[in-house]
Amino acid sequence: MKIGKFELGIMDLLLIFVPVSLALSYLKLADSSILFIVSLLGILPLASKMGEATEELAKIYGGQIGGLLNATFGNAAELIIALIAISRGLEELVKASLSGSIIGNLLFVLGMSMLAGGMKYKEQKFSPNLAGLNSTMLLIAFLSIMIPSMFHFVPVQHRGNDEQTLSMIVSILLIILYLMSMIFSLKTHQHLFKKSEEEKEEKAHWSRNFAILVLIASTVLLALVSEVFVGQIESIAHEFGLTELFIGAVIVAVVGNAAEHMGAIFFALKNDIELSINVTAGSSLQIAMFVAPVCVLAASIIQKPMDLVFTPFEIIAVFASVLIVNEISSDGRCNWFEGAQLIVMYLIIAALFFFVR
Fold this sequence. Notes:
The chain is mainly α. It is about 80% helix and about 0% strand.
């Protein structure tokens, strides 16, 4: 849609739901169902704008600073929603959204990317070496955040608040490992992650000050709209008979990562499935190694303790997701049918979460 010399996309049009959701909430003019839907529609464009502003700043600064910005703000929407939910005492919802984000990225988003790209190109290729590196990191990240769960479910003698303490230790070590991975990818071994010459020459469309302004404004508005969104979850769960596991693992996870979802599919349609894989795997790694640990540490600071003990269904689902993606990416080739397989697996897991009480 064009207005004068400006071209508006779907996400730009959805920005109308930001003031609408805030007005309806503060004036108490709508019930929980309407507020939930309207605020959800308001989060989507704000998350998209944050991603767009980050990309523009990455183009402006380039190299290591650009990579650092992308890594830092990649899951900002997810983190903001999680921190607000923690402040409201919804720790189980947050844990569900974290595991759901990993599952959704690896199965649904990557599946949609492979399906969309495969419908346009008979076969798409990517670097098996880079995919193998991501696979190893995903397996390490999975095992790390699931260790407190194993400790919880295996019948061993506990000494009080051991699960919380273990979760704190794991969180600190994961953040250290995450910082090390950034040094590896942005400094010591950046040649493994270099973009093509065409991508390196891409110019920023925004000025630096405008990109920073958009990033700050989007972050503040996202926090306000997320407050409205999270505030309706308990009412929605009660009204429609939904569990926190389903809402967190499916609805909140999809909304929090909407910008990355669309980006990964867009790259696949441009026959850059390797970038789609890097986006989905990188987002999952960031959630496991940075977002989840930060949530645990933040929860401790505001005295609303949260551990890394996930349900057995979440453990199995995340492990299955990592295992399946590792297998599919091992040959460096993909097609639409492999994408369809990932999507069906995700829908089966989503159905499982719906029925779990």
